[in-house]
Design a protein that fits this description.
With 296 residues, this protein is of the alpha/beta class. It has eleven helices and nine strands. The protein is globular.
Length: 296
């Protein structure tokens, strides 16, 4: 096991110095191979693409293949580049931004800032880019610890760079995240995850019900907070990062969560193959309350 980890660490280190296009090619091939050998993932991927209307039966196989390829690219980009290359190198890969100046003005002010980064493309690159540009502020980001000790250590080491402060999804991590935000800090989370406890709400995502976590909405509703939904898109060369200002209209938690998911829908439609469709997004957790279809 130790020799295997040493080999993997060495391989990742070498891959990290390949040109981005070469690394993406390798990742794309691995993604397609991985999907062929994972019947559960392929079944979930095909089902999610069909029920959300991302494709039809006629072009399903092509869409599955392209989505698997993009997933593989993301995996290799995250592990080999975002977690193993410098701030400067990661920042150089972002070739286009939208509304960066507006976001920067808010982030440098003395107010709470919330970044919501959906599961699309390489959001780790967006984090590294933004933290590099706004180096005078600390970015407190929530993450889910991996059960694999080796992978978890690599993930933490890759994220704990300079002004990025990773916080685990446990009671202490959530308490610290809220505390940092109340102190006019910067926080970031993934908003489109299934709720892990009974505090989720049912919302519509591409006209299908999902039991969504409410944490993102609660953070956004912090008095005085400025919020941005950060959309990362893989381009032919590099990445585009779009900082979408988010000002909720609803006054209740469920309404705000639905508004967030509506923005995410629009983001996904711009690059549907880059979204994480292999995630079991439409499952019904045991702790979820009964779904009222009239309300969803």
């Amino acid at each position: 096991m130790l020799l295997c980890r040493i080999f993997l660490n060495g391989l990742i280190f070498l891959l990290a110095f390949l040109p981005l296009r070469a690394l993406q090619f390798i990742g794309g091939v691995v993604g397609i191979i991985a999907m062929r050998y994972s019947k559960r993932a392929v079944k979930r991927l095909r089902n999610n693409l069909l029920i959300t209307g991302m494709c039809s039966e006629a072009n399903l196989d092509k869409m599955v293949k392209n989505t698997a390829r993009e997933w593989g690219k993301t995996l290799f980009e995250v592990v080999c580049i975002a977690w193993h290359r410098s701030y400067k190198h990661n920042a150089s890969l972002v070739t286009e931004t939208i509304n960066y100046e507006g976001m920067e003005a808010e982030a440098l002010s003395d107010k709470p800032i919330v970044f919501l980064t959906p599961h699309i493309s390489n959001f780790e690159i967006a984090l590294k880019y933004t933290a590099h540009r706004i180096h005078t502020k600390v970015f407190n980001v929530l993450y889910k610890p991996s059960k694999n000790k080796w992978f978890n250590q690599m993930m933490l080491k890759g994220r704990m760079e300079g002004n990025i402060n990773p916080l685990p999804t446990n009671r202490l991590g959530l308490f610290t995240l809220a505390k940092k935000l109340r102190a006019n800090g910067i926080v970031g989370i993934l908003p489109d995850s299934i709720a892990s406890s009974g505090d989720g709400v049912w919302v519509s995502f591409f006209d299908k019900p999902v039991f969504a976590t409410t944490l993102a909405a609660k953070l956004v509703m912090t008095p005085g907070a400025a919020s941005f939904i950060v959309a990362t898109t893989r381009l032919k060369r590099g990445f585009r990062v779009n900082y979408i200002p988010f000002v909720p209209v609803s006054a209740d938690i469920a309404g705000v969560v639905q508004e967030i998911y509506k923005v995410i829908e629009n983001i996904v439609l711009e690059a549907p193959e880059q979204y994480y469709w292999s995630y079991d997004r439409f499952r019904v957790p045991k702790h979820a309350p009964s779904l009222n279809l009239n309300e969803s």
